[in-house]
Amino acid sequence: MSKDAVESAQATTRSQTAGTPADAGDAGYSKDLKARHVNMIAIGGAIGTGLFLGAGGRLHDAGPALALSYLVCGVFAFFVVRALGELVLYRPSSGSFVSYAREFLGEKGAYVAGWMYFLNWSTTGIADITAIALYTHYWSMFISTPQWVLALIALAVVLAVNLISVKIFGEMEFWFAIIKVATLVSFMLVGVFLLATRHDVGGTRPGLDVITSNGGVFPHGMMPVVLVMQGVIFAYAALELVGVAAGETAEPEKVVPRAVNSIMWRVGLFYVGSVVLLALLLPGSVYSAGQSPFVTVLSKIGIPAAGDVMNLVVLTAAMSSLNSGLYSTGRILRSMAMAGSAPRFTARMNRSQVPYGGILLTCAVCVLGVGLNYLMPSQAFEIVLNVASLGIISTWVIIMICHLVFVRRARAGLVTRPHFRLKFSPFTEVATIVFLLVCLGMMGDDPGVGRKTLLLIPVIALMLVAGWFGVRSRMSRQADRELSELTK
């Protein structure tokens, strides 16, 4: 890497927080993301297919108590984002938690954090293009088009958007989030009206009687409520995008606290509020995994276009997730490449200051997903979704470990904590880590894909170890080269 890049990164960082180490991967980015972009990225991360589609099957399994699962998981997700937000204000970086892992856990920590995050988003990308193809097949005009062709078209469109500029990415996410929020708000207004007027919903009169007459809050006991938490955690994946996006906004100290603090009430309103409303409108047994719960309700009151509208929204949510995955992995891989722990080409940027090398690498894995859609179209979605959950849980655990070390150094007087802080450290971090590991362990209760996914953990660990021995000499040379350039 060039001396100019190192000096630029260090100069930028020193102007924000004197004395903190720089991430050379931060050099060269534009600052084109506005406050409205970051706020909507936060909303988009909090609202996705986990709510629009996944809530139906979970309501069927857990009943009204699903709202409790969303609330508990939402609180821990908020702790993770709050911890990341504090680290961002300490030192904004497009490398986000990988950059912080490098500072507080060393290069091994950054290496594991980065590649597990890449595993998360590359497999999530496969799930997204699979979902997009499945949702597109909802309309009869696309039924004759092979699933793998639709998946490839979706990947090509989102790739093109990501490569143009970060501003275009921000605008796309802004409007994706607007569509999702507008849909949820509209449904909630309709639901409140049905509840207030006790309007008939498919032969059921809405109200508390719907819950009390169908087994109460825990119709199937407590265990299903606990077991669905593993899936609910995945529904909150992408909240950490706020930390990545902060590296490309001009005023992170103003934008990030506002975006992070708003996540809690959004979780309460959109997730918990929606589930409570759904439970008051229809019994949990009416909902199913194969249909959006919102479509279930709207179709029961005779709205003919409900399926088309919600399918379009779920399609939008999947496109938004794919868009975010390409964006974040491009930045994370560039931070790693600058340290030597990722392929050199992933450090490359185009004229629009977009790290296209990392984005293309993620797309290459997604292309493998197109092949998976060709070979196993009926199983592709479930397989990659479970693998992606390993990546997101490990990422969140690493963020909390980084925060623990950061707070310890702050108490030793080595660094200064910003005013925007995660409260009750170290209890909050430890409780969050334990909760996430318990959610991971609960995958073992699924005798099918869940247990097979857990068996992948030692395989992934061996791959990480082998990869580390493959890159450590290059990382050492990179560090020596940077040191020699800085001392010239």
Please give the CATH class.
Mainly Alpha
What fold name stands as the CATH topology? Answer: Amino acid/polyamine transporter I
Specify the overall morphology. Answer: globular
Q: Which architecture per CATH?
A: Up-down Bundle
Residues in helices, as a percent range: over 70%
Give the end-to-end Cα distance, rounded to a whole number of Å: 15 Å
Q: In total, how many beta strands?
A: 0
Question: How confident is the prediction overall: mean pLDDT?
Answer: 82
Uncertain stretches? 1-21
Q: Largest sheet, if any?
A: none
Number of domains: 1
Order of helices and strands: HHHHHHHHHHHHHHHHHHH
Number of helices: 19
- Strand proportion, as a percent range, falls in under 5%
Family: Belongs to the amino acid-polyamine-organocation (APC) superfamily. Amino acid transporter (AAT) (TC 2.A.3.1) family.
Main location: membrane
Transmembrane segments: 38-55, 67-89, 110-136, 148-169, 174-196, 225-247, 268-289, 309-333, 354-377, 383-406, 427-443, 455-471
Protein name: L-asparagine permease
Question: Could you describe the 3D structure shown?
Answer:
This protein is mainly alpha-helical. The chain has one domain: Amino acid/polyamine transporter I (Up-down Bundle). 73% of the residues lie in helices and 0% in strands. The chain contains 19 helices and no strands. It has helices at residues 3-16, 35-46, 49-52, 54-62, 66-90, 96-136, 147-164, 166-197, 208-212, 223-227, 229-235, 241-245, 252-281, 293-300, 306-339, 356-375, 380-411, 427-441, 449-486. Helix 6 (96-136) runs antiparallel to helix 15 and helix 7 (147-164) packs antiparallel against helix 16. The chain is globular, with a radius of gyration of 22 Å. The relative contact order is 0.19. Mean pLDDT is 82; it is low at 1-21.
